[in-house]
């Protein structure tokens, strides 16, 4: 969502509507959405932020420090799945997050979903970014450049699967690159 002010505005609003205090973010890059989250949660709020690359996080870190919100962030440099599995081993983590933002590799969205759903409380929100994949989800495969086809397929499968997931209410917001807002209902 790095270059999408409408998506950022929506996410900031959602964080405040649900009074999010404990959140998790998969895919940090330079920390644009992370900073937005840190600014939208209370001073004693916490964000578990996971990315395979600490170097890009460190590019944005001076801005996070300048904003006075670094103390809310627990940055973990790792593949996301082992971190999620470790969190789930601690029973206290289950249902303990108010909000999750998923914006990493698209081919793992389904794998993230099953884990994140256990971590977020009933009534909590999970946001998946890029679910329109620059509109390519509505195009025939031949019209899509080859380098975007695999991710397009993963996103289409993911979108289909969460659309019929009885554990969620969902709404695909057509802002930025498409943000699917999921509310855990059971
Ligand atoms: C689109 S960027 C995130 C942008 C960020 N959320 C923002 O709005 O500014 C995707 C990030 O996901 C990270 N990533 C990719 N695969 C990952 C994985 N398996 N586990 C954790 N992070 C991953 C990449 O290193 C990259 O920084």
TrEMBL record:
GO molecular-function terms, A-Z: O-methyltransferase activity
PANTHER family in the record: METHYLTRANSFERASES SUPERFAMILY PROTEIN, PUTATIVE ISOFORM 1-RELATED, O-METHYLTRANSFERASE-RELATED
Family: Belongs to the class I-like SAM-binding methyltransferase superfamily. Cation-dependent O-methyltransferase family.
Gene3D superfamilies the record matches: Vaccinia Virus protein VP39
Keywords: Methyltransferase, S-adenosyl-L-methionine, Transferase
Native source organism of the sequence: Theobroma cacao
Domain of life from the UniProt record: Eukaryota
GO annotation, biological process: methylation
Pfam family membership, one: Methyltransf_3
SUPFAM superfamilies tied to this protein: S-adenosyl-L-methionine-dependent methyltransferases
Xref: InterPro entries: Cation-dep_OMT, SAM-dependent_MTases_sf, SAM_O-MeTrfase
Descriptive protein name: S-adenosyl-L-methionine-dependent methyltransferases superfamily protein isoform 2
């Amino acid at each position: 969502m790095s270059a999408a002010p409408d998506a950022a505005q929506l996410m900031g609003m959602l964080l405040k509507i649900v009074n999010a205090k404990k959140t998790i973010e998969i895919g940090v890059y330079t920390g644009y959405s992370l900073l937005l989250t840190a600014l939208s949660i209370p001073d004693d709020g916490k964000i578990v932020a996971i990315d395979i690359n600490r170097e890009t996080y460190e590019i944005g870190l001076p801005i996070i420090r300048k904003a006075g919100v670094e103390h809310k962030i627990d940055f973990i440099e790792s593949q996301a799945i082992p971190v999620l599995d470790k969190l789930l081993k601690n029973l206290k983590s289950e249902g303990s997050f108010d909000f999750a933002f998923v914006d990493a590799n698209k081919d793992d969205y389904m794998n993230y979903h099953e884990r994140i759903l256990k971590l977020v409380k009933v009534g909590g929100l999970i946001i998946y970014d890029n679910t329109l994949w620059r509109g390519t989800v509505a195009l025939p495969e031949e019209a899509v450049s080859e380098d975007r086809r695999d991710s397009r397929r993963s996103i289409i499968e993911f979108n289909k699967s969460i659309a019929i997931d009885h554990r969620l209410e969902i709404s695909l917001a057509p802002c930025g690159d498409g943000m699917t807002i999921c509310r855990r209902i059971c």
